[in-house]
Amino acid sequence: MFLTTRAVVLHQTQYNDRYGIVHCYTRESGRMNFLVPKPVSAGGRRRAPSQWVQMQPLAEVELTSELKPRRELHYIKELRVLNAHIRIGASGIKTSIGIFLSELLYRILTIGEADIAVYEYLCSSFDVLERETDSRAVANFHLCFMFHLLPLLGVEPEVNFLQKESVDYWFDLREGVFLPGCPFHNEALPPEEAEYVKLFSRIRFDNMRLFRLNRIQRARILDILILYYRLHLPPFGSLHSPEILKGIYDSRA
């Protein structure tokens, strides 16, 4: 059986000297992993770009693959790049964001059924990141992306409790709700940090340039979001790229 589908490249990992594994989220079948040959030299002669080179993280491609029962790694018969998102790789800050999102999505979009809404959100979001030129908007992009991905994953926090009387409320990260006092565990935000939840109930891609956050605030919000993901989407595993993000933003952004 052959499958032709659009796919977003999530991550690349090594397999052996000749092959690598490209992890994708496909529109038709959800998470799929492909065994892809690595580039090889041909006596100095030019060769067409290999599938490995074409399938860089966050690229959108169209591929045809033969599906065989009980096989976890598939081969690609035909490949066409729809959007390589070259401008993301041409910017230092956008590249760092791309590395982080690649690792994050590799961890949370595990093998399962396709979700077209998730797929379309990934594609439209990466298009926004590629086009965005405002430095503050770019600096806030990954936070906005993570927050608005949560409803699509079925783990949206309760953000409608925004009445004036909620000013002194805690936010329970385990349950995703506001509380009038500290819960009986440590995975909760005190009132001053619970304000971040209210803040991100208002942020969108079209207004994220308006949110003034310094480096310390962005780093703290990122830690909170990663903890929320870890609590609600196990097994989450460890991430290595957040530290890169925390050091790239000037506090004036």
Spell out the CATH superfamily of the largest domain: Recombination protein O, C-terminal domain
CATH class of the largest domain: Mainly Alpha
Strand order of the largest sheet: 5-3-2-1-4-6
Q: Name the CATH architecture of the largest domain.
A: Up-down Bundle
What string gives the helices and strands in order? Answer: EEEHEEEHHHHEEEHHH
Shape: globular
Q: What structural class results from the helix and strand content?
A: alpha+beta
Give an overview of the whole structure.
With 253 residues, the protein is an alpha+beta fold. It folds into 2 domains: 84 residues, Nucleic acid-binding proteins (OB fold (Dihydrolipoamide Acetyltransferase, E2P)), CATH 2.40.50; 167 residues, Recombination protein O, C-terminal domain (de novo design (two linked rop proteins)), CATH 1.20.1440.120. Helices cover 35% and strands 21% of the residues. The chain has 8 helices and 9 strands. The strands form 2 sheets. A 6-stranded mixed beta sheet has the order 5-3-2-1-4-6. The chain has a 3-stranded antiparallel beta sheet with strand order 8-7-9. Belongs to the RecO family. Keywords: DNA damage, DNA recombination, DNA repair. This is DNA repair protein RecO. InterPro entries: ARFGAP/RecO, DNA_rep/recomb_RecO_N, NA-bd_OB-fold, RecO, RecO_C.
